[in-house]
Specification:
This protein has 10 helices and 12 strands. By secondary structure, it is of the alpha/beta class.
């Protein structure tokens, strides 16, 4: 909400920001949240933005996915420390993300050689003339945009088998993983639905839940391993052992 000069004098007007206008994916590099800033909590949780200023009371839609990247404070991610200790993001905001992955810079001769060759290859490619074909279909920017736009329109329905598998995974993880909550279960459901959309399928099937479970399990192993078990409290730096102490 901002003040603008009109023929009637200064008046408050409502201006939709980037989140309300995107309706797609918000990509943020060098992600940083100042302390006490709660701006993103509502749109990330409920997909809405409430404005209450200058006599304006409105709720805007903020139907977006968030893809964010940030660098650890010490230059390199340390698996022995919690995520929250290494980045400038508070626990409530961090908990809004369905998946968190640590990109580790590990020295590997063969992999490093592949990366070096790929970087050199990219310098030679003329992006305007480079073409990729799969089974006779030209895969270019226009094709990708149409594919994504079409996939987003699909509203897949859950099959009984896929639903049962997802429910059983939730029950299993509640028994095995400390601090596993309904929020993680909702994340698995969203990932499975997204995988079905990527297949352009109007049904969520076993293969979709299997992939969602695989992705979630790998993400938790990566950043929430505490000793021989998985504890989601490690992400925000408060494990069960800390609570006991």
């Amino acid at each position: 909400a901002e003040k603008k000069s009109t023929i009637l004098g200064e008046q408050w007007t409502l201006k939709a920001g980037i989140i309300a206008r995107t309706r797609g994916t918000v990509c943020i590099d060098e992600f940083y949240i100042p302390k006490q800033d709660k701006t993103l909590l509502e749109p990330m949780e409920s997909q809405t933005i409430t404005i209450d200023k200058g006599g304006i009371h409105a709720t805007l839609k903020g139907d977006c996915a968030y893809l964010c990247a940030c660098n650890p404070k010490y230059g390199k991610f340390d698996l022995n420390m919690s995520v929250i200790e290494q980045i400038n993001i508070d626990a409530p905001t961090l908990s809004r993300f369905d998946l968190i992955f640590a990109i580790k810079d590990e020295v590997d001769k063969n992999r490093d050689l592949e990366i070096a060759r790929q970087i050199r290859k990219n310098r030679k490619i003329n992006k305007k003339t480079d073409k990729t074909e799969i089974e006779g279909v030209l895969i270019d920017d226009d094709f990708i945009f149409k594919y994504i736009e079409y996939a987003r329109q699909i509203k897949p329905e859950w099959t009984d088998k896929a639903g049962t598998q997802a429910d059983n995974y939730y029950i299993e993880m509640r028994q095995k993983v400390k601090n596993y909550t309904a929020r993680q279960h909702e994340a698995v459901l969203r990932i499975a639905e997204a995988h079905a959309k990527a297949r352009l399928s109007d049904k969520v099937e076993i293969q979709d839940t299997e992939e969602a479970i695989r992705i979630m399990t790998e993400a938790l192993k990566d950043i929430a391993t505490e000793g021989e078990s998985i504890d989601l409290g490690k992400i925000i730096g408060i494990t069960d052992k800390d609570r006991e102490r």
